[in-house]
Amino acid sequence: MKFGKRLKQQIEETLPAWRDKFLSYKELKKLVRLISSAESPEFGKADAGAEFMYLLNNEIDKFNAFFMEQEEDFIIRHKELQQRIKRVKDTWGPGGTKPSEAEYKDEMAKVRKDMVDFHGEMVLLVNYSNINYTGLAKILKKYDKRTGGLLRLPFIQKVLQQPFFVTDLVSKLVKECENTIDQVFPVEVEAEIVKEQREAITVAGKGIFRNTVAALLSMQEIRRGSSTYGHFSLPPLDLPDSDLIHSFQLNSPITTV
Amino acid sequence: MKARPALSIQISGASSLGVSEGLSSSLPAISTPLEDTYRKLPGTQQVSAKRELMGGPLVRATCSSSNSGVVGHIFSSSSGFSSDLHYSSSSPHEKHSSNAPFISQAPTNGAASPLLQSSNRMLPQSMMSSHYYKENSGSWCTDPGFPDFPISTPVQSCQVESTNCSGIMTSEDLCRSNEWQEWAEQLITDCDALASNWNELLVDNVMDMEPKVAKPCTSTTLSEQKPQVHQQLPSLSVASRSVVNSSSSANNAPAKPRMRWTPELHEAFVEAVNLLGGSERATPKGVLKTMKVEGLTIYHVKSHLQKYRTARYRPESSEDYSLFCFIGFLGRAVYSLLLVSIFSLSGSLEKKSTSTEDLSSLDLKTGMGITEALRLQMEVQKRLHEQLEIQRNLQLRIEEQGRYLQMMFEKQKSGLDKLKASPSDSENPPAPSDATKELPAKGEPEASQTNHVNSGTDSANVKSMLERSSEEMGGEQEAPKTAETGVSKSSSPPSKRPRIE
């Protein structure tokens, strides 16, 4: 499937607030086509070319702004979650101020759910960054191909340094979140866990989970061989459990009460 | 910080501004907007962004690089230059991490003078370089030499890129950024120094630059400040960076620079807030004062405080959203059990029967199911994250390879040019046959080099560039073909493949 379509799919499946923050791939493609087929060679080309550059830079700004905003939010929420866990433990946990197993379980369940969703959101942000980067790389490649320009290499170098692409902090938060989650989840027997996992297949209609699944599958698709597979292309995705993940998509969402 | 030298730079900065303004007005697109851009620092980026015309590059260069310089090279504005500065400031963890150690050692005095001299020296060049800008859009691509400049930052990419773009371009950027740097410093140390809008606008941006500059900013021009910053903010200097996003700011005076927060900075924030009696009681001003982080402005604190309050009193701001999912989830848990029996992923699942039995034991099942579903969700998320990291590393490596190949190619080319110019070949009829003669000879070493170099991926772009240049040189080369046969990743892809849908 073409990247443009995949991107569109991802956008549809993503969190609503994010929908307009993705790369305007289609528009850029239009411009490239315009550039390479401009009627009045000089003027038309220059105009479209300038527009292209302008749009590109704007997009990058957009990514940066959005990314950093989200990042800031994540930092805050991360800390808050940790505080919350501490509070719950201190209040309702064993040895707390008013120990109550029911309350503790209840609250912990909520915390767990929130943490998992939080984790998912962060991963989706990293995915956001990545898919935009991929889109940029592709569009630049198209541009160079169509116009014979040498924009791609230097421009992509710059992109690599952009804040939205430097996802180290978010990745770190993700890992920390994973650790916390491991601590917070009840310990269960291995075999049971595996079985339960396979049984509890749910595809949330809209939701972090569905987005994540969609993102993974998209990634797989995008990296499948294409006619223009070249030396700057990524190798096909090696995704164990690909079947399991594909199965998630089989379940269409149903409206619930 | 030497106020006096900064002053002189300031003046030269101003004059260069004037120069560039004059220049830019001579260029097709931008006369009046240009002035506006100079008036308003953040607006600069915005307007310059709007003028990405061919003639524009110079102006943009001026505006953005200057801005970036001021802000510690971190204007995340639309223009290409700002991103250059991003490059310098926001790449702490990449291969440019080598910059970090460098930064801490940068001598303060040493840095100042070369900067001054360089900026003065480069001034005239900047005028000339404008003419080169009409060319390819790649010309503004980077200011790669910039971080490199006064003190040799060991960043290879810089060097590579500087060979890509015209050297003049580089130095011009440097010049500008340096000048702006001096401006910034001047402002920091002596706020009353300059009259006019500049101050208002710059102060904010300049302030941003300081602490965040510490580690990630590879900009050498900031080296003077860095030691100071290090002392003041030992813990905060670690991973903080400030970014200015001018294009998002309106064209009004108070700039709304965007800062890149870090956990450490946030910790300091929380401490300050707690000291002041909690998130409700604390005021932005108070927090700002308590935190004592240089470069932090009240705008940053204000917006951060707002976010903080929201997060506290409505824990998990996406909670509503996830609550929706949760409810939906319960319903789907039942449905999924049904489906499971149909699709049965594993043999054991066939025993699962659909129907009301499941519904009645819903409580139990969903009770278990939730945790397990969460686990499942975690698994998928972890998997995605893992793949993303791998993909990202791959992308970085690919580009690195590409750059390296490009550099090799450039070297070859320059070597070839030298050979052409060498007197020893004067026996033969000049140029063309020389070129053709050299070609095969060059082709071989080039091919073998590229082969050796190709440990990772092949580079179609470089290949095409090689092809292009070889055509220029008037010969067909084996080089591009052999380059392709270099080691590739899992499968060795031919350049064209039947389209797989």
**Element pattern of chain B in H and E:** HHHHHHHHHHHHEEHHHHHHHHH
- Order of neighbouring strands in the sheet with most strands of chain B: 1-2
- Radius of gyration of chain A, in angstroms, nearest whole number: 22 Å
Shape of chain B: flat
Our count of helices of chain A gives 9
The pLDDT mean of chain B sits at 53
Question: Residue share in helices of chain A?
Answer: over 70%
Order of helices and strands of chain A: HHHHHHHHH
Beta-strand proportion of chain A: under 5%
Oligomeric organization of the protein chains: heterodimer
- Give the % helix of chain B: 55-70%
Give the CA-CA distance, first to last residue of chain A.
35 Å
Largest sheet of chain A: none
Basic shape of chain A: elongated
User: By helix and strand content of chain A, what is the structural category?
Assistant: mainly alpha
Helix-strand makeup class of chain B: mainly alpha
List unreliable stretches of 5+ residues of chain B.
1-175, 191-254, 317-365, 428-501
Strand content of chain B: under 5%
Rg of chain B, please? 29 Å
Instruction: Report the count of strand segments of chain B.
Output: 2
User: What is the averaged pLDDT score of chain A?
Assistant: 81
Quick structural summary:
The complex is a heterodimer of chains A (about 260) and B (about 500). By secondary structure, chain A is mainly alpha-helical. Chain A contains 9 helices and no strands.
Describe this structure as you would to a colleague.
Chain B: Residues 253-313 form the HTH myb-type domain. Chain B: Belongs to the MYB-CC family. Chain B: This is HTH myb-type domain-containing protein. Chain B: Keywords: Coiled coil, Nucleus, Transcription, Transcription regulation. Chain B: It comes from Hibiscus sabdariffa (roselle). The complex is a heterodimer of chains A (257) and B (501). Chain A is mainly α. Chain A has nine helices and no strands. Chain B has 501 residues and is mainly alpha-helical. Chain B is 65% helix and 1% strand. Chain B has a two-stranded antiparallel sheet with strand order 1-2. Chain B is flat, with a radius of gyration of 29 Å. The model of chain B is unreliable at 1-175, 191-254, 317-365 and 428-501 (pLDDT under 50). Chains A and B meet through helix 3, helix 4, helix 5, helix 6 and helix 7 of A and helix 5, helix 9, strand 2, helix 13 and helix 15 of B.
